Amino acid sequence: VPVVGVLALQGDVREHLVALAAADAVGRAVRRPEELAEVDGLVIPGGESTTISKLAVLFGLMEPLRARVRAGMPVYGTCAGMIMLADKILDPRSGQETIGGIDVIVRRNAFGRQNESFEATVDVKGVEGDPVDGVFIRAPWVESVGAETEVLAEHDGHIVAVRQGNALATSFHPELTGDHRVHGLFVEMVRANLAPGS
Ligand code: GLN
C-alpha cells in the first residue's frame, strides 16, 4: 500500500488524510525533512500559499521538497498547493517562493471578489464517470502553460487542473466533497511510480 504524505504546515490536512485513506493509500502528516524522506508521494493541501511557503522555508523543508519533486516523487497540490507547485506566480507576495515542478504561471485569487467561493461541475481528464464537483475557495487559475504541461480541466475558459509528469494540481478541493476519484487518480500515479513498467 503506498504511503502518501500530506504537507502539514498549514491548511486542510485532515481532509486530505481522510480522502487518501478512502483512495486506498496510507496517509501521513509531513512536517519534517525526515518524514518527507519516508513517503512515496505527497499532497500539498489548500490553505494560504504565502504561509505554507514561509513555513516550508522556516522548517527547512523547501530545498528537500524541491529535490524530491525534481527526482520525480509524485505530488498533488490543491488550490494553495497548486500555487506551491507552479514554477511561477503572476503577482507573488514579497518573499513568496514556490516548490515548482509544473511549468505554469498561476494567478492567485483569480476568480475575483464576486466569485471568491463557488461550486461548479468540472470535467477532469482521467477521471471516469460523472464530472467532479469542484469546490473553489479563493482559488487560483493557471494563466499559461508550458509545452510539457497537460491541461486536465477548464472552468469558464480558465485552466483549473494540470499535470506534468508526476505532478498534478487542481484549483479546486476534491478533499472537501466526499468524492475521492481525483485522489484515486493521484494514488494510481504513486503506485505506478513505485512499480515502473508493471
Ligand atoms: N487564496 C489562497 C492562496 O493564494 C488559496 C486558497 C485555498 O487554498 N483555498 O494561497
From TrEMBL:
E.C. number: 4.3.3.6, 3.5.1.2
Reactions catalysed, as given in the entry: aldehydo-D-ribose 5-phosphate + D-glyceraldehyde 3-phosphate + L-glutamine = pyridoxal 5'-phosphate + L-glutamate + phosphate + 3 H2O + H(+); L-glutamine + H2O = L-glutamate + NH4(+)
Family: Belongs to the glutaminase PdxT/SNO family.
Gene designation per UniProt: pdxT
Superkingdom, taxonomy of origin: Bacteria
Active-site residues from the entry: 79 (nucleophile), 173 (charge relay system), 175 (charge relay system)
SUPFAM superfamilies on file: Class I glutamine amidotransferase-like (SSF52317)
Keywords: Glutamine amidotransferase, Hydrolase, Lyase, Pyridoxal phosphate
Pfam family, one: SNO
Pathway(s) annotated for this protein in UniProt: Cofactor biosynthesis; pyridoxal 5'-phosphate biosynthesis
Chain sites annotated for binding L-glutamine: 47-49, 108, 137-138
Record-linked HAMAP family: PdxT (MF_01615)
InterPro entries: Class_I_gatase-like, PdxT/SNO, PdxT/SNO_CS
Protein task: Catalyzes the hydrolysis of glutamine to glutamate and ammonia as part of the biosynthesis of pyridoxal 5'-phosphate. The resulting ammonia molecule is channeled to the active site of PdxS.
Subunit record text: In the presence of PdxS, forms a dodecamer of heterodimers. Only shows activity in the heterodimer.
Gene Ontology MF, one: glutaminase activity
Database matches in Gene3D superfamilies: 3.40.50.880
UniProt name for this protein: Pyridoxal 5'-phosphate synthase subunit PdxT
